[in-house]
Specification:
Blueprint: H1 6-10, H2 13-34, H3 48-54, H4 60-70, H5 73-96, H6 100-118, H7 127-145, H8 152-159, E1 164-166, E2 169-171
Helix pairs in contact: 2-5, 2-7, 5-6, 6-7
Length: 174
């Protein structure tokens, strides 16, 4: 049986990268285009209502954040807009393979934040755990692998072989 090299496996990562990016970007699409009422505090479809069901089950520091935003409706709205914007921006970046390592870090944080926020809701509602486990692990993998093949990072690497400098740190692109 032939050996498979890392360079060979890199050719298959765009499938996972685009799928993972789409999972986050599509959440933005659902809330802003398909059902804009999800971001309307006056609507019964407002996604802020779902966070109320998270509160009794939330874990760790996420529970404190939930209490803070739920006790302050304008802050809840801002939180949901920022969360949705992060899903859009970094989901798109992941699909394009742009700043893939940074995107992986942000998306893993969002996914695992959803998992900690959802807590354990029982066997009939495991969506948040599935999101946290699969999307978080996939995003975390890209922190280590980056994106070489069929990515914007691959094009940027030609110009910035050390990586992109943010403050005094270099973020490798390959």
């Amino acid at each position: 049986m032939a050996q498979t090299t890392v360079e060979t496996t890199q050719k298959y990562l765009p499938i996972l990268r685009v799928t993972l990016g789409w999972m986050f970007f599509s959440a933005f699409v659902r809330r802003t285009i398909n059902v804009p009422a999800k971001l309307n505090p006056s609507s019964s479809a407002y996604v802020g209502g779902k966070l109320i069901t998270f509160l009794p089950h939330a874990w760790g520091p996420v529970k404190g954040v939930l209490i803070s935003v739920l006790n302050n409706p304008p802050l809840l709205y801002d939180f949901l807009i920022i969360f949705t914007a992060l899903e859009a921006i970094f989901g798109l970046f992941m699909m394009l393979g742009l700043l893939t390592r940074l995107s992986g870090l942000v998306l893993a944080g969002l996914a695992w934040g959803i998992g900690l926020g959802g807590g354990w809701l029982g066997t009939t509602c495991v969506d948040e755990w599935q999101i946290a486990a699969v999307e978080g692990a996939g995003a975390f993998m890209f922190i280590f692998t980056g994106s070489r093949w069929l990515s914007a990072d691959q094009l940027l690497y030609k110009k910035y072989s050390k990586g992109i400098k943010i403050w005094k740190y270099y973020i490798p692109l390959w």
